[in-house]
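Q: I have 544 residues here and want to know how they pack in 3D. Can you give me a structure?
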Amino acid sequence: MRAPREPLWLRLDRAAPWLAALTALAALAVAFRWGTSVVGGSDSNCYVSQAGLWLQGAIRSPQAVGFDPPWPNAAWSLTPTGFVPSQVVPGAIAPMCPPGLALTMASTWAIAGPSAVFAAVPLLGALAVWLSYLLGRALDRPATGLAAAVLVATSPVVLFQIVQPMSDMPAMAWWLLAVVLASRPGRIRALGAGLAASAAILTRPNLAPLALVIAAFLAFRPRDARHAPRRIADAGLFLLGVLPGGVAVAVIQQWLYGSPLSSGYGSLGLLFSWSHLGPNLRRYPAWLITTHTPVVCLAVAAPFVLRARTLQESDSDRWRQATWLAWLCLALACAVWAAYATYTVFDAWWFLRFLLPAIPLLIALCAVVLVAIVARLPESARAGTAVACVAALAAFFVYTAAARGVFGLWQFERRFRDAGEYVAARLPEQAVVLTIWESGSVRYYGKRLTILPDQIDPAWLDRVLAFLDEIGRPPFLLFETAEEPAFKQRFQVSSRFGALDWPPMAQIGREVRIFNPADRARYLAGEQIATERVWTDRPSVSRR
């Protein structure tokens, strides 16, 4: 007589760990295939360049400018994007961003070379996908964890950030690790959760209050009254693990900015305001729902669904613990939102990245509710319906990500590397490049000093260019096409170079042009100026 076939639902539970691991590997593959792997704008330059400075022991070293600039606001004009003038060491610059991701990148750099800095975010992103599975499993069952892993891996904002060298994905991974470790009792886990929170605080210090939420969860999670001392011990060990991160942030900020409460982002009064609350209340929920569908709202029902299980299932203690874990996830999601509710107002959907530490928590809670709904169906239809629902959501997520340009970012960002490498290959070693958005990438790839023209008084531009010529540091102007109108508006009245009324010496793709001020007089005298064109879809530089 043949043994009864195991229900598909149970087989899905059995296969869930392996499928979740494959999902994490798929997320890693996506990150490497479509990753920008470029030092580009302010954020990426801050993290990658800072990593190199930590390795060199030069994080506070004065800039080797080779001259004493005479113009006003010289310190700011010599500071590339992602950095600020040092208030501690004259002539030095300090990174604008926190040290956590840069220190992680420095570790991968030390192990596998400079290009390995771009592996840090993909690796932590893949870890976050696996942790999403563990969180969903802790809340409900392995199939719930698998649903959470798939939906986190395909989330549009997760895909947007896993391909970029920025701190949003690492912050998400470290806080998620802290939650997963704290989800089960044990002193070693509590201490590990604290250390994970330490790494998260180093990465994103403004989210430090989340540690208090986790500590409260550990101290008050439901147990037998005889275990109260153990709960207090777990909370204490967790806070002990948090301590190194908090102390490190304070020490580094004192060392870099002159105060443990200072940062590279400027005054808190400028960054946070109650006037920002209304616009942010409209923007962030709208971005979340349009990119993740209204299904994400089911998250608020998860604690009540799990609470019902304590009344229906024989293992009531297991479901009581899961209910408290669900409340922890909701509390942390609210705390993340509160941290940015009065923050500077932005107007692009991808600033949803600030809320990334909350995204896997909400998705795991949604998975709990979806699985509970499916569980009401006949047993033969449960697994198929669950797979269909998750697959449909994942397909919508990927479609949304593609429609919003996630998989084209690597092509768009490569202009930074192409322009920087052109500078390294074509411009004199003593050249100084006046540029704004590409000031970091020109320094990183081009190894040339940069000056920000938007920090130069309009009346001084001609004198700055003349000064550089006099000391043997030939100046060049490098702009993205979107920057040229602002440059012309700022300088065309006060400077003979302000109108950019001569041909560029080079054009990098369609986005970047490089001007040699020395070409202007020759052009106005009737001499033809050839423009070298670098096509970014080709491996070599062509001239026509």
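Q: Anything worth noting?
A: The CA atoms of residues 379 and 531 lie 70 Å apart. Confidence is low (pLDDT under 50) at residues 538-544.
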